[in-house]
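Please, structure for the following, as tokens.
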Amino acid sequence: MTAPSIAPATPNWLTLHQATLTASKDGTSWLVHMGHELVYVLALLPVSGKHGIKLMQTINGRQFPVEGTFATAEGALAAGLEKLRSTLGW
């Protein structure tokens, strides 16, 4: 899996809660900070030539399953962000 060059803007629903979304240096994961604290990581996973995504809470390692396989990294990231939004109840 090649590292995507996705640097998405932070979704409005995150900025409303003083949170940010940034691409990590490895190019295959994104970091969600709330204030200055890293709270969630979204990481791409290779799945049969396509993409999956893992959502993990950094303070305790808890993982939240994101269903589906996606043709693009962008699609996987969108699904991971939607899972995060629903997990947070926003």
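The chain has a mean pLDDT of 91. The first helix runs from residue 12 to 15.
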